[in-house]
Amino acid sequence: MNVNFVDLAFVGIPTFCKFPYVRELEGANADVAVVGAPLDQGTFDRPGARYGPRAIREASQIYGSAFIPELGVYDVELGRYKIENTKIIDCGDIPVAPTLCKENLDEITNCIGQVLDSKMFPVVLGGDHSITYPIIRAYCEKGIPLDIVHFDAHMDFGDDMAGITISHANPIKRASELKNVGKITQIGIRGLLNPQTFIEEGKKRGSKVITAAEAIKMGTKWVLSQIPKSKNIYVTFDIDALDPSVAPGTGTPEPGGFTYLQMREMLAALPKKGNVVGFDVVEVNPLYDPAGVTAQTAARLIIDFLAAIRDKNKK
Asked: Into how many domains does the chain fold?
């Protein structure tokens, strides 16, 4: 008896949205490479973001069977298919070794460099926010100039945190020192963990800060007007930019953040400001969200943002 089985969410190896697992990039001939960076050695408080890539992949399984080759996935709210004619692969995780912080960060730079050499668009699943610095460093080593758009509750501009110069508290400060990095726009900043020294240091580096309250009050069109036009944009998205009611599973939650719809609207509009060359989603910590809501929201926002980027590139 021949039976056509449905590829259900709980069946098979949980790659992102059930896309093919391809470890060897040479000859892969793909448009988008999803890469995990399961590192949380840069955290100061609650560890567990090392499990973020796995949680996001598992949450994405429910969307796997909705993707149709060539057509992409149908979005009932848009009334059309999106991410069509896009070959997406999951390259698995960048290997990490406990206690070897410098070596781990170097390996992230090396692996993202390989993705860029393969002419693929990198989507990186974190991991804590320290991974963003070595990712952007890979673009620098390839001579790719870029501006940064940073969604976060925190500025991440700590220069030297108790002698620690690379952590999840300072990836934007470290990235701002790279020669290929131009303007920085930080959106969603709020709470009590952004000391005045961070604000001052950000201003020195040309950072434009948009608080969560400003963004929510003024709306997406205003937020977009504050972001400078750019040739290339790298986007780093800390999940704590969202309100804890939407994304409780994160290391440093702050009340007063964005809803899913507010975040989706900003991400969907962002490609109008320039060529998005890659993005990461960081600080998903499933240990603090047994319901999996945070990872589910992260997975959906990745799909939404990737769709907006691909739509822009078609035009």
From this structure: 1
The model's pTM is 0.95
**Contact criterion met (CB below 8 Å) for 111 and 96:** no
Over 70: is that where the pLDDT of 182 sits? yes
Provide the Cα torsion 92, 172, 121, 232; round to 10°.
180
Q: How far apart are CA 258 and CA 7, in angstroms?
A: 33
Q: Where are the alpha helices (DSSP H) in the chain?
A: 52-64, 101-117, 132-141, 171-176, 196-204, 212-218, 220-226, 260-269, 293-314
Range 261-274 average pLDDT? 98
* CB-based contact 305:71 (threshold 8 Å): no
Q: What three-state secondary structure class fits 223?
A: helix
Q: How far apart are the first and last CA of the chain?
A: 47
Is residue 5 a part of any domain in this protein?
no
- Name the residue type at position 249: G
Distance from C-alpha of 186 to C-alpha of 189, rounded to nearest angstrom:
7
CA distance 284 to 278: 18
Full domain range(s) for residue 166: 16-314
pLDDT at 2: 61
Domain CATH code at residue 36: 3.40.800.10
Tell whether 48 is covered by a domain. Answer: yes
The reply to whether 3 falls in a domain is: no
Rounded Cα distance, 270 and 97, in Å:
35
Residues 221-230: pLDDT tens digits?
A: 999 999 999 9
4 inside domain: no
3-state secondary structure of 224: helix
The confidence score (pLDDT) of residue 4 equals 64
